[in-house]
Amino acid sequence: MNKLKLYAEWVIIRAHNPTVPNTLYKPFEAIGSGVNDADVLIGELAKQGITSKPVSGGRSTMAIYDKTRLTRFNDYCEELMENILQDILKNN
């Protein structure tokens, strides 16, 4: 997978408002990714116990249940983005 695209996907996940699905899906489509790509990344967060599984067809994309999980969500996304970016810079 294109690492720059993966980095962009995590930036979008990190920045989007879970109660407004278009803040996730429209930016994903703009970079050539789709709903399934977003759902895979949300699934990774769910496996870590940080968010719910992807919510399809609802008014939200995922649920973050409390402040502790919100902190974990932010930390997890930031760490992943940093690692991907370091890998990109190392290989150029």
Brief synopsis:
It is built from 4 helices and no strands. It is an all-alpha fold and 92 residues long.
Description:
- This protein is mainly α.
- It has helices at residues 3-15, 22-30, 35-47, 67-90.
- The protein has 4 helices and no strands.
- Helix 1 packs antiparallel against helix 2 and helix 1 (3-15) runs antiparallel to helix 4.
- The mean pLDDT is 91.
The number of helical runs is 4
Q: Termini, distance in Å? A: 16 Å
The whole-number mean of residue pLDDT values reads: 91
Seen as an oligomer or otherwise, the chain set is: single chain
Low-pLDDT runs of 5+ residues are none
Biggest sheet overview: none
Strand and helix map with partners:
Blueprint: H1 3-15, H2 22-30, H3 35-47, H4 67-90
